[in-house]
Amino acid sequence: MGLGDVTRAGVLAAVEECRLLGRPEFRREHGFGQATAYELVLDGARYDSKAVVGVAHQYSAGSPLNAEDFSGGAHTVARRLRALGFTVEHPSSASEAAETSVPQLLLQPRGGPRARGPQNFAHSVTRGVPIADLRGVLGEHGDVLDALYPDGIARLWGSTPTDQANNGKAKALRGRRVGDDVLFYAGKHFIARARILHLFDSSPVAKAVWGTNEDGATWEHVMALGDLEEFPAPVQAEPILRSLNVPVPLRGLTLRSAQDYHGVARLLPERIPSPPLRSSADTASAAASALTDDADLLTRLGSLRTHRHSGAQHPSRHQPLTLLWAISRIAAGKPRLAPWSTFRAEVSPLLAEFGLTGSNVTPEYPFWHLRGSGLWEVHGIPDDAGAMPQTGVFNAVEAVAGLTHAAAKLLRDPATRLEAVLRLCRTYLVGVDPRALLDRVGLAGYVPADGLLDPFESRAEQEAADEEAASGPAARRESFVSRLVRYRALAQEVKDLHGNACQVCGTCLRYNRKPYSQAAHIRALGSPHDGPDELSNLLCLCPNHHVLFDGLEIYVDADDGVRWTDGGESLGSLRRLPRHPINEAHLRYHRSLCSLTARDSSS
Predict the structure, then answer these.
(1) Are the beta carbons of 528 and 445 closer than 8 angstroms?
(2) Looking at residue 60, what is its pLDDT?
(3) I need a surface site. Which of 11, 165, 260, 378 has the fewest CB within 10 A?
(4) Is residue 117 within 8 Å of residue 159, measured between CB atoms?
(5) Rounded Cα gap, residues 273 and 119, in angstroms
(6) Regions of the chain where pLDDT drops below 70
(7) Cβ(283)–Cβ(289) under 8 Å?
(8) Is 285 helix (H, G, I), strand (E, B) or coil?
(9) What is the C-alpha to C-alpha distance for residues 278 and 293, in angstroms, rounded to an integer?
(10) 371, 287 in Cβ contact below 8 A?
């Protein structure tokens, strides 16, 4: 385990997460301090090199590097980043400015008729470019633009590269950032203002939008713009340029600080109030920025763009099976993103075992196309890889993919996670044995084991014991058991409150001449349920109904009726006491578990 395991795709994934959270929160979440020796510079923004590489190792190799793991120091981190093709620089005042929300000012010449400036501005800024027309060349930026422009029309502007390292244009390209304002200059006037929503470099996109200039160059340094204001009356540029100490007329792309911008703001039209900025800096991937809450998550899970093979009765299972695999990683505390090699090794067997009969095992399809769900992101694929990259591309770059930060955050809640599993199984996996599937995918905790096992003995141990059975006295073997710590006083309290009478059948058993009952957790304590050990999560049950309740054979409906999971026949009503409040959310959780394995969907 070391820096050599970090891939370019892993770094890009970590950078996107940092853009989502912001540098301070990203550092806090992953336990890093601010960079003092080297910063990663990408798309005009700066990032803490150690923090990015530490998280990138998690997405590249499955485990993070902590701050104390960098034995070689910041120099080795910088060397690895440069070997992967990234720019690394010493920290500067620009990095401090990048962490603020105050916009800088980018002065952008529109260009004259000879450079097709008016036509290009009208085409890609005023009217905008249909995202659908660029789908084949956008690559991972397609998801970003989809989220930024819900109407499907992107407003884009670009700049040609410069051969010089420290002229005004080069400094502007390096220093501009998401959230800055752009002033468009034409004919000694400023004619429009816009805000930068996203920055990326793509020669294929630039050629598709604007073609090339007379020198064969294209405007490959692309800005996605929002909050566009075309001024009703052009604004005289000379007073503003002179105040900014910029030569008149404006000849090239120029960047001025937030403080300078504040000094000339009075000379510009007052900005029209607009909705809060939604930019690529707000999300780990474009579509994720639109993900709002649990309901939105479940809606997206229930409306996947699944492929349907010719003549097939049911849609392909590739995407839902992949999402179940991804959810199991969240339940197990694994990284939300995984490299292509891990994905292929783990998902391919699932597709072979539970995919539709006759369907091909093609893990590259869900790996790539799940991006359209708004719940999934892919990193490391080159912009020119096409609408469906070849498998060799995934292999070559060791691409990284998985749930978005927003989706993973919602799915860390056990109740939301269960509803997500239920939505996928009921929508796309009808006819699949849920017990076998969830056990295979790593979500066995959602279904009960067949048969009555020792509660402290695993199914594998039970089967081994059965194989060892022989005549004569039973043999013994040593084992190590890890048990959840329960608060026994609570269990006794619920029994005392109900006088050891079962809340389902009313039976009060006696054992060793004493009243006997059992305290049953409604939402189980262990993973993946993570229920609380509290009175509102307990029922007082007889052993029979405890086994049936834990085995998901019976449930409590919304009207306190106790019903069989299969068929829904009533067993009576749950007896309640005012002194024993029951958390309704726990009962709903248990009902969802029962619904997951019910043979009759009416339950």
Answers:
(1) yes
(2) 92
(3) 165
(4) no
(5) 28
(6) 1, 71-74, 92-101, 271-290, 307-313, 448-487, 599-603
(7) yes
(8) coil
(9) 17
(10) yes
d(Cα 77, Cα 75) in Å, to the nearest integer? 5
Radius of gyration of the chain (CA): 30
**H-helix segments, 430-528:** 434-441, 459-468, 488-497
Among 405, 369, 15, CA closest to 199: 15
* Of 140, 196, 191, nearest in space to 173 by CA: 196
Token code pair at residue 368? 């790539």
> Are residues 383 and 137 in contact, defined by beta-carbon separation less than 8 angstroms?
yes
What are 37's two structure tokens?
A: 């020796």
Q: What pLDDT is attached to residue 312?
A: 55
- Judged by DSSP in three states, 224 sits in strand
Type and span of the H or E element at 76: helix 73-83
CB 104 within 8 A of CB 258: yes
Are 131 and 138 in contact, with CB atoms under 8 Å apart? yes
- Count of beta carbons in the 10 Å neighbourhood of residue 119: 12
Listing DSSP states for 542-600 in one string gives -HHHHHHHHTTSEEE-TTSEEEETTT--EEEE----TTS---HHHHHHHHHHHHHH-SS
Q: Which long-range contacts (CB under 8 A, 24 or more apart) does 387-392 make?
A: 387/135, 387/136, 389/364, 391/364
Q: Residue for token digits 């085995």? A: 551
Judged by DSSP in three states, 217 sits in coil
pLDDT of residue 478: 56
- Rounded to 5°, the CA angle 343-348-351 comes to 125
pLDDT reported for residue 52: 93
Q: What angle do CA 121, 226, 262 make, to 5 degrees?
A: 100
245 with 165: CB under 8 angstroms?
no
Residue type, 361: V
Shortest CA distance to 405 belongs to which of 527, 300, 279, 287? 287
The C-alpha atoms of residue 279 and residue 149 are separated, in whole angstroms, by 10
Closest CA to 381 of 59, 152, 138: 138
Question: Pairing mode, if any, of strands 105-109 and 181-186?
Answer: parallel
